[in-house]
Design goal:
This protein is mostly helical. The chain has five helices and no strands.
């Protein structure tokens, strides 16, 4: 999956702030830079991330499904209830 567009990154940034997850000491521009950095990192390391999946999943899942696996695990690690 390609990096998010500028509009998509803006939407993620806005949603993150709406959810109240940004520390009060972090500037909005720094939050945006952090979100852009992780999006860029995911793009740069897509092959590495793909390689960690077991072969049956790696060869059967779409890029979107693989991204969702990463997202759902990260959300749970962040303390999000997945109910």
């Amino acid at each position: 999956m390609p990096v998010l567009s500028s509009a998509e990154r803006l939407a993620v940034w806005q949603r993150f702030m709406e959810l109240g997850h940004c520390p009060p000491t972090v500037l909005k521009a720094d939050l945006r830079a952090a979100l852009d950095a992780i999006d860029d990192w995911l793009e740069t390391n897509a092959l590495l991330v793909n390689a960690i999946f077991p072969l049956p999943f790696r060869t059967s899942a779409t890029p979107a499904q693989k991204a969702f696996v990463v997202a759902i695990v990260a959300a749970r690690r962040a303390g999000e209830s997945l109910d």
